[in-house]
Design a protein that fits this description.
heterotrimer; A mainly alpha (315); B alpha/beta (503); C mainly alpha (375); A: 315 residues; mainly alpha; two-stranded antiparallel ribbon; C: 375 residues; ABC transporter involved in vitamin B12 uptake, BtuC; two-stranded antiparallel sheet; 2% strand
Chain lengths: 315, 503, 375
């Protein structure tokens, strides 16, 4: 479908799509950060979780069992990636909940552990310290949605510029956000998790297994951040580079704070941050320094954190 | 009718591992549909008894009998299963959940994990109607008043099937209107067959809502009976139980000029604790004692007074919460005692601390105040409560205040140190300082004060002259049964007529 | 008798506080050996090179005189030690005021930028170039750190998130400045021009970046120890951190102490940036790698936030890093294993208790007194 024919509305849709694509990894990690924050345990290891997942996915497809069907290969990789993220999150949970280590320090230490371990194993297993570029690793499939010839704008929105459909994880992000909302608002484990996070004493007095809920929060956030990592290395790019997450985990953490622990706010913040990134590259072509725009998300975060306190003082 | 009582305690006793005998041979009987008030001072053993009834503690001897069968509660789950529900003084709720979701928390109606919100709401509405506790099931718990929060706590217990409710000091956080509404609700509940044990220190609770009462003092039952036959004065006497004469030799009063004037002090907080128009004067060379049960505004009064400017010098404050506000437990003794005075030229010069004078000062304080410590470098948190408090006093006095506000100065302090601290306060009084002594320990107030004020619900309930005062006179004012109209503690304010009613 | 003196010696050399750290280091080194064994043909050799690689050798040359060999690698140990000491102190001071400030990275970048910008632009006498550039760097870092402190004091903003965000902003500012305003047109990659010779430290050890800044590390440790232990500001910082409610009640200026602690930390991180720019690199590339600030955090944690242990912890990490490089050059093991080791040490040091040890003791107790009730 030729986007030019649709004029301004087409351009707007394309811009929205670009933002969505840029925001997808941050959104997944931010959903993970939100889950753990609602469970009362802030997760600063989102960066390391994404990195570990991105790495494991690619490495698993490189070292996949030979008899595996090519169509299954990317799913095999995704599965390995999620398993790796779960293991790292489990380590964080054990360190904090069983060994009483400080949660933030443990998160930072695991970030560094992930950074070192991924590059180390990259060098050892793939023979190259920079990236796995010399291997051809697959991406997860894109899903086109047929039968939309009569609605060109909708077709553009749901199938992208080239009509090949969106990456399954890009489609999955809003669905997952919806699923998370349903879980937190309408299921019993979700209610228990939120209670354990907001007031552990009340939850404990009501007979809720608070420790189990905290494990759930941390492991769940690991899983979600892992999905973000999978998108990094098996989405638009199909390789793993050292330091691939490039601060997205911290932006996700910022999104949780900017969004004030509400699902809508966090999604909005993640989209905003994605938009800033997209805008940075687009305006870079017009000789506007991209660094100015990459400064916008952190600046917004600071403003959002500082404003309530400032207003309280002047009121 | 020969039906066994809903609850019976037979010679129930609890001795803690550190040797403290909190409950000593308690007998109690509670019928179905009866509201029973358990009344006593702080430290009388009420909360220990309640903990044993809810499975948070286990008795060292004696037995708990429910409906004729002896039971043993090893954990709250056992108590809940037996139909016992506890409504704590500060009900714990999840602020962002609605009332209905809080009531059903932990036992939500659900189909395979999917919450049935409508069913929960309906169940809570029915429960509220049946028990006469008006509540909007959809209101957010974070927006509720304290009285409403308490009702949620009661509903939570009822939802789990409790028909024996333990309420811990419910009136303590409620204003008079809300307390009245609560009593009506409890009465309605009792009429449906629910038994209620009401732990309280307010005589009004006994007289207005309870059917029967039991008075605890020092871990033992000293009186029990029907509320119909009780009188405020009689109860007050049973609770306090003694008329003591002061033990420390006090020099005669030499009252000087008024040092600190406070007029119509009013403070409100989120809770029911408040200050409601307190006016008082403190003169040089006298001790003004503020008596009252904790939670009637003493903490607010201490902080408010510490913020005022006296006629000369400054106001020093010994804070109520020693470990939180009074000391820095991980820092050394030397670091602690210079906190108010480290900027003085004797201790620091142009931003540099002078180690030797600081050390010498700390050593002098340790010696002067008789503190048992290894030296100025020892972390202050390693000392006993009494020694810590001595150093708090030393620190505050080092700044040379003319007015001292001492808030619960001997709480958690051993007898020897308490005596030493009291002697210090008297020495200050002899040196023409003005002292405000806030204490829940009536003995201390009576021993040291030249004038006494009773604080009740944030206002002065009575103003008394020190000499000749005894505890029974104050007990009625402390529990709200008596009140001096327009009481104030200014230097020329009248004293309450403290005539005793016939017991 | 022997056991008694042995125990006394053990207590002297390894006081109880350091025992946990020493144990963690030992376990981590053993784990490193295990990990190396998984990937290497000669694990023991690789491990030994990791541990001893950075040592300079004394060798007799062809002319019969003794020469130091492998000084360059030892030089990198010293350079890293200086950086990590300063960055560890930059985290330590705010931590003593109970502030979890993670802004050392950004402060380092801004400090390096300010120092180099100043050094490039300074028109005046050459001997002033270095001292003034140093002041500019420390001022830049201090202001950036103080900004986070002010936001915390005045607006109650969470200092961890704010400092992380300020990091990102600072790094982008740095990249913007280097790629646009300070760019050297003649360089093959985006970087500033080389600093003039007057604004650069001459190396004390040939071919290394080790200059007089070597003194900065122990001096900074001493300065921080004196600050915290002997000055009124340090006293205010310590008390505000140890018991904030008590400090407020006693009338200490808690807010000001918080801001000052973060500003001083920032100044030290800025000094580290000055060291990177003027002593090590002598010009600033646009792709200077972030992350050194987090290693400073690890150093501070390993030193358990005591200034006198910072030098040792920094030296340990710097030694490991150089050892990793040596190991990579001589064997088939990649040097990133050092990062794994560093993180592992911290994880082991941080864990307050070990559940399996406690459970083991419990089982042991039950085996000894079968059927008995607990006391």
């Amino acid at each position: 479908m030729n986007a030019d024919l649709l004029g301004w509305s087409g351009a707007a849709v394309l811009a929205l799509l670009a933002c969505l694509r840029a925001a997808t990894p941050v959104l997944y990690a931010a959903l993970g950060g939100l889950l753990s924050e609602l469970g009362g345990k802030i997760n600063v290891a989102l960066e390391g979780l994404m990195l570990v997942a991105a790495f494991s996915g690619v490495i698993a497809t490189i070292f996949a069992p030979p008899g595996l069907a090519p169509a299954l290969l990317p799913w095999w990789g995704a599965g390995a990636a999620l398993l790796a993220a779960l293991l790292l999150a489990a380590l964080l949970a054990l360190l904090h909940l069983e060994c009483r280590a400080d949660l933030i320090v443990a998160g930072i230490a695991l970030n560094l552990l992930a950074a070192g371990l991924t590059v180390f194993l990259l060098a050892e297993l793939a023979g190259d310290k920079g990236s796995t570029a010399r291997f051809a690793t697959p991406a997860l499939p894109s899903l086109p949605i047929g039968g939309l010839d009569g609605w060109p704008l909708l077709d553009l929105l749901l199938n992208g510029e080239a009509g090949r459909g969106h990456h399954v994880l890009v489609l999955g992000a809003p669905l997952l956000a919806l699923g998370l909302w349903l879980f937190l608002a309408h299921t019993r484990p979700g209610a228990w998790l939120r209670a354990a996070g907001e007031n552990p004493d009340a939850a404990h007095a009501a007979g809720i297994p608070v420790r189990r809920m905290q494990y759930l929060a941390l492991l769940g956030s690991g899983l979600l951040a892992g999905l973000g990592g999978v998108y990094l290395s098996m989405g638009y790019l199909t390789l793993f580079q050292a330091d691939m997450s490039a601060g997205r985990g911290f932006l996700a953490l910022a999104a949780v704070f900017v969004g004030r622990r509400s699902l809508r706010g966090v999604c909005g913040a993640a989209l905003l941050f994605g938009a800033a990134g997209v805008l940075a590259t687009r305006l870079g072509a017009l000789d506007v320094p991209p660094q100015l725009l990459t400064m916008v998300p952190p600046a917004i975060t600071i403003a959002v954190l500082a404003l309530p306190g400032w207003r309280r003082r002047t009121s | 009718m020969n039906v066994s009582p809903r609850l019976e305690l037979r010679a129930l006793a609890k001795r803690y591992p550190n040797g403290v005998l909190a409950n000593d041979g308690i007998d109690l009987r509670l019928a179905r549909g009866e509201i029973h008030a358990l009344i006593g001072e702080n430290g009388a053993g009420k909360s220990t008894m309640v903990k044993m009834l809810y499975g948070l503690e286990q008795p060292t001897s004696g037995s708990i009998v429910l409906d004729g069968r002896a039971v043993r509660f090893d954990a709250p789950q056992d108590a809940i299963r037996a139909g016992v529900g506890l409504v704590p003084q500060h009900v714990q709720l999840v602020p962002s959940f609605s009332v209905a979701r809080n009531v059903v928390l932990g036992a939500e109606p659900a189909r395979w994990g999917w919450l049935r919100r409508g069913a929960a709401r309906q169940a809570v509405r029915d429960l509220a109607r049946r028990s006469g506790l008006a509540l909007d099931p959809d209101a957010l718990a974070g927006t509720l008043s304290l009285g409403q929060q308490q009702r949620v706590g009661i509903l939570k217990a009822l939802y789990r099937g409790a028909d024996l409710l333990l309420l811990d000091e419910p009136g303590a956080v409620l204003g008079p209107d809300e307390a009245g509404a609560l009593y009506r609700a409890l009465r309605a509940l009792a009429d449906t067959g629910v038994s209620v044990v009401l732990i309280t220190h307010k005589i009004a609770d006994v007289l207005e809502v309870a059917d029967r009462y039991t008075v605890l003092r020092d871990g033992r039952v000293v009186a029990t009976g029907c509320s119909r036959d009780a009188s405020a004065a009689g109860l007050a006497g049973q609770i306090v139980g003694r008329a003591l004469a002061p033990a420390i030799d006090k020099a005669p009063l030499r009252r000087g000029a008024v040092l600190l004037r406070a007029r119509a002090l009013t403070r409100t907080t989120g809770s029911a604790e408040c200050l409601d128009g307190v006016s008082l004067d403190v003169a040089a060379g006298e001790i003004l004692g503020i008596a009252g049960v904790e939670g009637n505004g003493q903490g607010l009064l201490a902080r408010a007074l510490a913020g005022l400017q006296p006629r000369e010098g400054e106001v020093g404050l010994i804070p109520q919460d020693r470990l939180h506000d009074g000391v820095a437990p991980t820092l050394s003794i030397a670091d602690n005692v210079i906190a108010s005075t480290y900027r003085r030229p004797s201790l620091s010069r142009r931003g540099w601390l002078r180690r030797a004078p600081v050390d010498a000062l700390a050593r002098a304080m340790i010696a002067d105040f008789g503190v048992a410590a290894q030296g100025p470098a020892q972390p202050i948190g390693a000392l006993s409560g009494g020694n810590m408090q001595k150093l708090v006093l030393a620190r505050v006095l080092a700044a040379g205040p003319r007015v001292l506000v001492a808030s619960q100065p001997t709480r958690g302090v051993d007898i020897g140190a308490a005596r030493a601290l009291r002697e210090r306060l008297l020495a200050l009084r002899a040196a023409d300082a003005g002292i405000v002594l806030i204490s829940a320990d009536l003995d201390e107030i009576l021993e040291l004060s030249d004038r006494v004020v009773v604080l009740y619900r944030g206002a002065i309930a009575g103003h008394f002259a020190g000499p000749g005062l005894d505890a029974r006179m104050l007990a009625g004012y402390m529990t709200g049964a008596r009140r001096q109209p327009n009481a104030a503690a200014c230097i020329d304010s009248p004293f309450a007529a403290a005539a005793m009613e016939p017991a | 008798m022997i056991a008694f003196t042995g125990r006394a010696l053990f207590d002297l050399l390894l006081p109880p506080a350091a025992r946990r750290t020493a144990g963690a280091v030992a376990v981590a080194l053993a784990a490193a050996l295990a990990l190396i064994a998984c990937v290497s043909e000669q694990p023991l050799r690789a491990w030994l090179i990791l541990l001893t690689g950075p040592l300079p050798e004394l060798r007799q040359g062809a002319d019969g005189a003794w020469h130091w060999q492998r000084l360059v690698r030892f030089g990198t140990v010293l350079e890293d030690t200086i950086n990590l000491t300063l960055l560890g102190l930059a985290v330590l001071i705010p931590f003593r005021a109970r502030q979890f400030a993670l802004g050392a990275d950004g402060q380092l970048f801004l400090g390096a930028l300010a120092g180099v910008a100043f050094g490039l632009a300074w028109p005046g006498p050459g001997w002033l170039a270095l001292p003034l550039a140093c002041c500019a760097a420390m001022l830049a870092g201090g202001l950036w750190g103080g900004a986070a402190g002010v936001l915390k004091w005045r607006c109650g903003a969470n200092e961890m998130v704010v400092s992380l965000m300020l990091n990102l902003i600072a790094i982008e500012c740095y990249r913007l400045a280097v790629s646009r305003w300070l760019r050297d047109p003649g360089a093959g990659f985006p970087a500033t021009p080389f600093l003039p010779p007057a604004a650069v430290f001459d190396p004390l050890i040939a071919h290394t970046g080790v200059g007089w800044m070597l003194l900065a590390a122990p001096l900074a440790v001493l300065a921080v120890a004196l600050l915290l232990g002997r000055t009124t500001l340090g006293y205010e910082i310590r008390v505000s951190g140890a018991a904030p409610a008590f400090a407020r009640q006693a009338g200490l200026p808690v807010g000001r102490a918080i801001v000052m602690s973060m500003a001083l930390g920032g100044a030290l991180a800025g000094l580290a940036g000055f060291h990177v720019g003027h002593a090590l690199l002598k010009r600033l590339p646009v792709d200077l790698a972030p992350g050194l600030g987090f290693e400073g955090l690890l150093v501070a944690l390993l030193a358990r936030h005591q200034p006198r242990a910072i030098l040792g912890a920094a030296l340990f990490y710097a030694w490991l890093r150089a050892g990793g490089q040596a190991m990579e050059r001589s064997t088939d093991v990649a040097r990133e294993i050092v990062l794994v080791l560093q993180a592992l040490v911290i994880v082991l040091v941080m864990a307050e208790r070990w559940p399996w040890r406690a459970r083991g003791r419990h089982w042991l107790g039950r085996m000894r007194a079968p059927g008995g009730t607990s006391a």
